[in-house]
Design a protein that fits this description.
about 85% helix; 4 helices; mainly alpha; single chain; about 70 residues
């Protein structure tokens, strides 16, 4: 298939070849990965709240310094 002749562009050519079942499966996998990542982050914050607070303060300080320029 010549993507340039169809007028769909690169992403349209790739996404056009994906069935709705495949797309739904990809969405489910992404949701599961996001849920797992959120759970891991939540566990880390519960285990080390002081380190997370210090990191958030340091990040906020840096963003404030950059934004004030």
């Amino acid at each position: 298939m010549d993507v340039e002749k169809t007028g769909r562009g690169f992403a349209g050519g790739i996404l056009g070849d994906i069935s709705s079942q495949d797309a739904q499966h990809m969405v489910e996998q992404t949701k599961q990965a996001m849920d797992q990542a959120v759970e891991q982050v939540s566990d880390f914050i519960r285990e080390k709240p002081i380190a997370c607070l210090a990191g958030a303060l340091a990040f906020g300080y840096l963003v404030g310094k950059i934004a004030s320029r």
